[in-house]
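Lecture notes, continued. The same structure-token format from the folding unit now serves as the input rather than the output. Read the line below as a description of shape only.
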């Protein structure tokens, strides 16, 4: 793919104190952009200075939400190498999201190449502090100036980069979550498996309520029977019950997380029994009562592993593993972050280095 490159004349000052980066506040000097027009396909790939974009107030993405996105990170190793974790999986998933949202598919190899090129230019923006990384946000949205419901004819694909600190300010400390009984996040046949803005918009009310009640995240149940566990906040969820690692199977309403997939592979490689199946909140509560609920944790690119220490279901409160990080969670955290930051050998072949 031909990529036109226009470099910024002046570069921004990088945030001096990496411990105050937070998540998603700063953006680098450049971004990748390309356009789609029906008849022409994807074209005009370019890396240009990071800047505002101009859109018609009637741009379709603003009215009917035809949008998809991805999220991954670039990590700096102690030797100064910059590397990505399974990036081809993100572009593959972006195309699965595209299909569901009737957005024209992208060429996965070309987009990965564009990202590599952008990272080559923005290398210096990858944070040096342990736990901090450069968050990568590819996204596509409909731009036709038309207020009507139909798939668009014009789209923009962009990649922006944001140096970010550790996702949770509390670090690896276990989070407090409760079972959401009022709102649902997704139903089968809907868009639960798709990374699209709407899924996040509809999750905000539950999240807001949780925060008011001093909880960090909500545990989502299935939208039909409201008993099967699906996800925690915007992470996949795992349970360790009597030594067995269990995670909800991908039935269409659960997002197929790359961290989820990797955690399953890591656990299996270490000899754990891992089962993907439907699991009810009732079963989890029963395991807790029987003293068999060893661990609960969420998985996602932002936090990697997020242990759950306190789980509330109605009036029932479950304190898991004495509110401390468990053996499996710790092992997964150490293995995955070890591979990502180049501290341990990548025996799975998941790392792609930025030259
Ligand atoms: C992105 C996302 C995840 C985690 O996916 P990863 O590929 O592991 O980052 C989980 N749930 C939802 C709803 C998501 O949007």
């Amino acid at each position: 793919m031909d990529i036109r490159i226009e470099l910024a004349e002046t570069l921004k000052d990088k945030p001096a104190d990496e411990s105050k980066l937070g998540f998603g506040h700063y953006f680098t000097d450049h971004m990748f952009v390309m356009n789609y027009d029906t008849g022409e396909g994807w074209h005009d790939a370019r890396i240009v200075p990071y800047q505002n974009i101009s859109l018609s107030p009637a741009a379709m993405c603003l009215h009917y939400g035809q949008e998809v996105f991805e999220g991954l990170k670039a990590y700096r190793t102690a030797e100064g190498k910059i590397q990505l974790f399974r990036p081809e999986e993100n572009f593959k998933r972006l195309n699965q999201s595209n299909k569901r949202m009737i957005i024209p598919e992208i060429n996965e190899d070309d987009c990965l190449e564009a990202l590599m090129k952008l990272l080559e230019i923005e290398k210096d923006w990858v944070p040096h502090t342990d736990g901090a990384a450069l968050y990568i946000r590819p996204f596509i949205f409909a731009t036709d100036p038309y207020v009507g419901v139909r798939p668009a004819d014009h789209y923009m694909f962009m990649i922006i980069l944001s140096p970010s600190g550790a996702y949770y300010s509390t670090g690896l400390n276990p989070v407090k979550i409760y079972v959401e009984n009022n709102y649902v996040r997704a139903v089968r046949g809907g868009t639960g498996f798709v990374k699209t803005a709407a899924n996040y918009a509809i999750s905000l009310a539950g999240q807001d309520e949780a925060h008011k009640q001093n909880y960090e995240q909500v545990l989502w149940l299935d939208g039909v029977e409201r008993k099967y566990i699906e996800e925690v906040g915007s992470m996949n969820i795992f349970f360790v019950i009597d030594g067995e690692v269990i995670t909800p199977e991908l039935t269409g309403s659960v997002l197929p997380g790359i961290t989820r997939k990797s955690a399953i592979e890591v656990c299996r490689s270490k000899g754990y029994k891992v089962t993907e199946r439907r699991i009810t909140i009732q079963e989890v509560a029963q395991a807790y009562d029987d003293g068999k609920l060893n661990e609960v944790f969420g998985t996602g690119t932002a936090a990697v592993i997020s242990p759950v220490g306190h789980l509330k279901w109605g009036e029932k409160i479950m304190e898991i593993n004495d509110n401390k990080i468990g053996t499996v969670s710790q092992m997964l955290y150490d293995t995955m972050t070890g591979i990502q930051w180049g501290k341990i050998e990548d025996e799975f072949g998941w790392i792609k280095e930025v030259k």
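Point for the exam: The helical segments are 60-64, 87-100, 108-122, 197-201, 204-212, 258-269, 281-289, 327-340.
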